[in-house]
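We store sequence, tokenised fold; for instance:
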Amino acid sequence: MIFQFNDFTPWSPFIFVGLFVVFSYLLNQPRQYLADRGERVSWNEYIARFFVAVYAVVGVLIFLSPLSLFERMSLLLFLGFMLQLSVIDALSGWLPIEYTRAASLAGMVATLGRGDMDAFVVLGAMAAMAGIGILFAVARFYFNLRAQRDVLGLGDVWLSVAIAAWCGWSDTLLALMMGVMGFVIWHACSRCQRKEGPLGPWLCAGTLLVLINRVFNPVVVW
């Protein structure tokens, strides 16, 4: 991977602090959302700050990338959605449809905002969302049927659709693959013998890795 930064590199510490403040503010809404639904006891400020720091670092890399200003700002917006979803799922174990739906709609708007008004591009984005959603829905049905319980939540299906709205077909497949692999490794190495765990944060983590590769190596596709 070749990192080519823009002229804002000397301002990296200030960019990090700014993103940390903004991302911390974005967590006020999910914190209140969980509190309104009786999930206040599940909120852990240390875990939340850890996620904020990680996403702020990724945000700095994206802001320093050679992409256009609009693309960098739209990806930072995407990070905000992913941060909220990661924290909610990590702390409460579920992904509200309100957040995944908003992330999906924002992804479609960002696609149109890039100037890709061609009908084939729009249809391609919608096809990617539908294809990924169906693929993950089939996987959910299969694994839940085999385990005779919910091992893959419906929120994870909608999260995959939201990722597809922003990343497209191939990048989403790669992100989901890395996310599932990370979850399996974490689950296998976990000291407590739990039967399940939050998959959403790992899918978002895979998406972060794909985004970093995408902004610095835009010609690497498969």
User: Anything to note?
Assistant: DSSP finds eight helices and no strands in the chain. The chain has a mean pLDDT of 81. Helices lie at 12-26, 28-36, 45-63, 69-92, 97-113, 119-147, 154-189, 200-216.
